[in-house]
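cron nightly-structures :: item 1 of 1
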Amino acid sequence: MVGIRDVARKANVSPATVSRVLNNDQTIHVAQATRQRIVEAAAALDYDISTRKYIKKRMPSIGVISTIGKASEEQDIYYKHLRVGMEEEARRLHLGMNRIYNLSDNPKQWEDLDQLGAVIVVGTVTKESITALLKQNMQIVVVDNPDIQQEVDMVYADLERMTKTVLELFLENGHKRIAYIGGYKVDMDEFGGKQISTNEKRMRAYQHFMADHHLEKYISYRLGGWTEKQGEVLATDLLENESPLPTAILVGSDPMAIGVYRALKQKNIQIGEEIVVASFDNIETIAHLSPGLTSVQINAKSIGQAAVRMALERIDGIRDEPIILTYPARLIVRESFIPRTKRY
């Protein structure tokens, strides 16, 4: 049976271009010669697009299942930008995205998901729930959950690699007493149930790094909720119960780092001198911190856009095999930690 890839090879264009041209997508701009070459290739191969048109017309929408509540999303810049990226890309590609489940707000049994072209899952959903979801819809894109083992598309920021990068910079700058302050991993099911564990990717990378560099005796960490208040509480506990104190602290998120700053200042500890600090997210609200917070910048909007494009590839039948897409992140250096080396 002739497929879209066969037409693409004969016309010397991408499968996505073939799909959009043959489905009369008015938003794509290609030369008339290219358009004619695609049509002629399809005719020569006797490629029948009638079934594809029927599917595309019947299933134009993407559903979103998110573990993040609407209120929390408004306060968390990362997830806010992720949603903006998905919405903008869906509009650009003329895809509906009006079926949204926020598991923290209104958990319910997933129904009629087989009527959607694809489903994007944002956050850490349990393996069992993904298995149940696959029974309704095989076209799934999972965002920010690299630990999922099922045959689904995945897109996420490479946080484990960046964790190791920052820790290596700490070590190269003479810091062995490195502490980690972060949040628990929370896997959620379709009914709002939660499975809490310490197996969060940044925490996991920290433990592996310390063990790999024979620094087990210096391992010190505190885990809690991913909030500013929890960052302060956890940092205060660490400062009051660790002796000697760490000389470097890696924090799992910028909101938590704001709380860590408050705890350090209450103890009159000079940030960037007595204890260096680095974090993740590089959100706008850290701009008021003094000294400036060194943070890993993650392009959440681009990740959201990529998830929608991956979903469209599934809808259009461009590929059947799942893919994994990791987005790079970069370290934004400020006064809380200025490494001597320049490998970031």
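cron nightly-structures :: done
The longest strand covers residues 96-102.
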